[in-house]
Design brief:
nine-stranded antiparallel β-sheet, nine-stranded mixed β-sheet
């Protein structure tokens, strides 16, 4: 994961309390054994709208030279002013994109059956705040190509594959989890979501340009990243990343992994795909994912300890804060995915 995306996580732990008054954002339910199960998503249906981050540094600077990146575009998607609450609890990051969904040319949504569809030349973001569904779609050719006619829109014809050193396009949901509960207070920490891969087309191969494909630099990926923080006074503010691998265009499955990220001075612990999926992701099939992460997150802390990181932190000190979910698109792919019934559930002891 390109850790420049951390700029767009947006809602940090210190800002939790301004949203406590949003009614109906959390759901509590009994587990049948007297324990309380709490959804840590403050707005599971996306009813409060989205704060959209500015695109940031583009993959290529050709449009910048023509003046098309002269504005730091950011703003809100408020469903034609029908969003509820005092402001968005969710962020939408579009790092390294050539466009912005809140550009005045694109920010008015099309509305179909309660779904608000926001589109720019390369990106489509659709959200239904009644059903709690979102769709994230990217036209990779419109991100990784030349602007042949000089109108500020890449034409998707003369493709510009990344060599491996450039930034890459992201389209990520992010938010902050609340309430803050440490692992000492909970017996389970479950991630649930319905995921449907609508489309994933390798444009280079589709156009007979397979010789330009570089497996080390080109991919379409869906990963859920949690920031697992320490509540220990000695390690206050420190964390490790915990990534739940959900899809990678190059592989049928991903193994567990760990590495040190110099950019954030933190460990990245990867779950692998087999903890959530028993088969390769197939286009058009909906996968109902349910995964209790707590034991593997505890093992992640053990890995940190083995590297001399978070050594003053015990399992009981851990808690979740921010997360992001969505596309990382370092390759030229035409992609679309839909998420529904999303929740991050803590079962209290």
């Amino acid at each position: 994961m390109n850790k420049k995306t951390t700029k767009f996580i947006g809602l940090i732990c210190a800002c939790l309390f301004f949203v406590i008054g949003i009614a109906g954002c959390q759901s509590d339910e009994s587990t049948g054994g007297g324990e309380k199960r709490v959804n840590l998503l403050m707005d599971p249906n996306y009813s409060t709208g989205f704060e959209v981050a500015a695109p940031g540094v583009p993959v290529y600077d050709d449009l910048d030279k023509e003046g098309f990146y002269a504005y730091p575009l950011k703003g809100k998607l408020d469903y034609n002013k029908t969003a509820t609450g005092t402001g968005p609890v969710w962020n939408l990051a579009q790092h390294a994109s050539a466009y912005s969904l809140v550009d005045p040319k694109y920010r008015t949504p099309e509305v179909k059956d309660g779904t608000y569809i926001y589109s720019d030349p390369a990106t489509t973001f659709a959200v239904n705040p009644t059903k709690g569904e979102v769709t994230l779609a990217i036209d990779g050719a419109k991100e990784y190509s030349k602007d042949d006619d000089g109108d500020g829109i890449r034409d998707g014809v003369n493709l510009l594959p990344r060599t491996g050193s450039e930034n890459w396009v992201h389209l990520l949901l992010s938010s902050t989890l609340y309430p803050k509960v440490t692992f000492a207070e909970i017996s389970k920490l479950e991630f649930e979501i319905d995921m449907t891969l609508n489309k994933c087309v390798n444009v280079l191969e589709e156009r007979g340009l397979g010789q330009l494909f570089n497996e080390g630099a080109h991919a379409a990926q869906i990963t859920m990243y949690f920031m697992v923080y320490s509540n220990s006074a000695a390690d206050q503010g420190k964390y490790f990343w915990y990534g739940v691998s959900m899809f990678d265009s190059r592989y049928d499955s991903m193994p567990p992994s760990s590495l040190f990220d110099k950019g954030t001075n933190s460990m990245i612990i990867g779950s692998g795909t087999e903890v959530i999926l028993s088969e390769p992701v197939r286009q058009g099939k909906t996968y109902s994912i349910s995964y209790d992460m707590i034991e593997n997150m505890k093992k992640g802390l053990e890995t940190c300890h083995s590297k001399g990181i978070l050594t003053n932190t015990t399992v009981d000190d851990l808690y979740l804060c921010d997360f992001n979910l969505g596309w990382e698109l370092p390759g030229i792919y035409d992609v679309s995915i839909t998420f529904a019934n999303f929740g991050v559930y803590a079962t209290m002891k």
